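no rush on this but wanted to send it before i forget. theres a chain ive been looking at and ive put its sequence and its fold in token form underneath. i want to understand how the tokens follow from the sequence so walk me through it. thanks a lot i owe you, the record is right below:
>
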Amino acid sequence: MKTVAAICSDSSRHRNIDTHYVAGLSSSNTQYLAYQTSRMTDSQEQKSISDLSTRPIGRLLWEYSMPAIVGMVVMSLYNVIDRIFIGRGVGAEAIAGLAITFPVMNISAAIGVLIGAGAAARVSIMLGQRDRRGAEEVLGNSTVLILVNAIAMIR
């Protein structure tokens, strides 16, 4: 496979990059790409890839799902504490209002996660296929779709 050495404008480091990936990029984009990819050395990149293929699946699942679990726990605690303060400060009518709006907010969050997770998976696949343009299109479409969802929920 033919490779090209892209040189960063602010450093003397370079990295071999697949020409199929670089084709169509301007020189400034190529320099930025080289800078971003030169931050991780070849040995670090190989180690992270080999870790995914050699480590036990249960341990990897636990390691990669822990940030999501912590995030969900924090959001749940926020909702509980928020209801305590609203209930004591405003009263029962405010808690009734929260009970009505909570499912709507959950549906909105679920749609956002649906779009975000689907787009992330699709972008990952396209970047793995070295289809940067397609990945950018998916990212743009998903951003517009999330914004449309947000505007629809506001109205």
Observations:
- Residues 58 and 80 are 31 Å apart (CA to CA).
- Residues 1-35 have pLDDT under 50 and may be disordered.
- Residues 57-89 form one domain.
